[in-house]
Amino acid sequence: MNILKYKEYEGTAEIDTDRQVCRGKILFINDLVTYEASTPADLQIEFQNAVDDYLETCRDLGREAQKPLKGQFNVRISPELHKQATLKSIRDNTSLNDVMKKALESFLYSSHEVNQNLK
């Protein structure tokens, strides 16, 4: 799936073969904001219009527009992995949050292939 970007927002770019249109929705907010166009080039324009309209509508309603993602989420892991991560934070004299951040960055941005098979 392709991702459109504008201001602080991302949105989907899909083709609806049944209706013969390009369509999408703004990602990472609870409000449902959709857009569609007849061509991919026009879809980017409609996405930008949808973001601008969303921001303007929120202003008109006197409420704050939702920001895409807060940088906070819950992860469920085994108690043993939790323990090992906590011990790592103690050994490194850092926070558990920092250990998890570094682990996630390593997973996402490492140029080396990571073997994800667990025994």
Short account of what is shown:
This protein is an alpha+beta fold. It contains 3 helices and 4 strands.
Describe this protein's structure.
This is HicB. It comes from Methylocucumis oryzae. By secondary structure, the chain is α+β, with helices and mostly antiparallel strands. It folds into 2 domains: 2-61, no CATH class; 79-109, no CATH class. Helices cover 41% and strands 18% of the residues. It has 3 helices and 4 strands; from the N terminus they run ββββααα. The protein has helices at residues 40-61, 79-91, 96-109; strands at residues 2-6, 9-16, 21-25, 34-37. It has a 4-stranded antiparallel beta sheet, with helices on one face. A hairpin with an 8-residue loop joins β3 and β4 (34-37). The longest helix is centred in the middle third of the chain and has 22 residues, at 40-61. It is elongated and about 55 Å long. The mean pLDDT is 91.
Which characteristics define this entry?
single chain, 119 residues, alpha+beta, 2 domains, 4-stranded antiparallel beta sheet, 3 helices, 4 strands, elongated
Please specify the SSE layout and strand pairing.
Layout: E1 2-6, E2 9-16, E3 21-25, E4 34-37, H1 40-61, H2 79-91, H3 96-109
Antiparallel strand pairs: 1-2, 2-3, 3-4
